[in-house]
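Batch manifest, entry 17 of 40.
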Amino acid sequence: MSKEWNEAEGREMFASGMSYSSIARHFGTTATTVRCWLDPKYADHCRERVSRNRKILKGTNATPVHTYRCPPVEDIAARLAEIPPDTRTLTQRLCGDPLPQRSALYKMQSGNA
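Output type: structure tokens
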């Protein structure tokens, strides 16, 4: 069930022993959001952390750690082309044998070790 946030109802639910996750499901939001609504100290902590990270990144070329940029399609295609075709039998796959041309024995024999 998803409904608009009602602080009195949320506090009553929390006081009755419901978890942040249960309350979040009731209101259609996340547990972290509910915790921020119900716990001012936690909300302040989150705001300070975000502010501190923004100050660190301000004026630099750094990007946040959680930001992921997908490599260009050409790079992905080139990396996939390096993988040899999988000619292993079912038994070899189930037993965890390496891909052809990727085993330590192959690398040692070909001098690529």
